[in-house]
Amino acid sequence: MPDFTPAKTHGTPIPAVRMAAVYKYYGEFRALTNVNMVVSPGERVVVCGPSGSGKSTLIRCINHIEKRDDGMISVNGTDLNGTRANIAKVRSLTGMVFQGFNLFPHMTILENCVLAPMSSLGLGRPEAEARAMAYLEKVRIAEQAHKYPIQLSGGQQQRVAIARSLCMEPEIMLFDEPTSALDPEMVKEVLETMETLAKDGMTMICVTHEIGFARQVADRVVFMDRGEIIEEAPPAEFFDRPQSARAKEFLAQILH
């Protein structure tokens, strides 16, 4: 299992993620406006906001799935400056879990999990399989290793997707609305898996509207609207005493 001990420079932990004055455009549309955010090693951050607020764009810019147009992003001290070497380094540090499971349907669960460690990290099959089985066990789905994705429920497939990311032993996990495509009864098992990672000290940035998860697991909630970070606070403070009018309006719509 990976060591989540923070890297340090002169005794001070290096930020896991640092974003400074980040802008992102799609044509004339400004998706991110002057985004500034620092995530500490081991911190769990939940990003929330209305549809189209820039949440997914923000998280995708962190590992260069989306290329920022201005500003600075660094991951564990590596500047995402556009060079192939630095992009590859940042992607090796970050695991990404999407709304869709993105599993290869013609491969077994085990084969899905060993592919990247073998092709990208150069692991031999025995080592890659041992690592995959350890992480499948961690997400409580090892017994499904030799089945195909179509034989699993949506919640099970998402847990496999988490295990597949963990097989690369990232230092930071990025979740882009990982439960939004699931039936309600399947959401709990995925959130429990994420809670386990949080307890292990994994640095996590999660785009989600799962309020219970945010209250229980997050160290900080970041609220976005129209491409900007409007407000950020500890969960209890944000959900019980939001400061901005936009946050109050958003919470009134999702809290019942």
From TrEMBL:
MF annotations from Gene Ontology: ATP binding
Keyword Nucleotide-binding: yes
ABC transporter domain residues: 17-251
Keyword field contains Transport: yes
InterPro entries: AAA+_ATPase, ABC_ATPase_HisP-typ, ABC_transporter-like_ATP-bd, ABC_transporter-like_CS, MetN_ABC_transporter-like, P-loop_NTPase
Stored Pfam families: ABC_tran
Sorted UniProt keywords: ATP-binding, Nucleotide-binding, Transport
Similarity-based family: Belongs to the ABC transporter superfamily.
Name of this chain's protein: Amino acid ABC transporter ATP-binding protein
Organism: Thioclava kandeliae
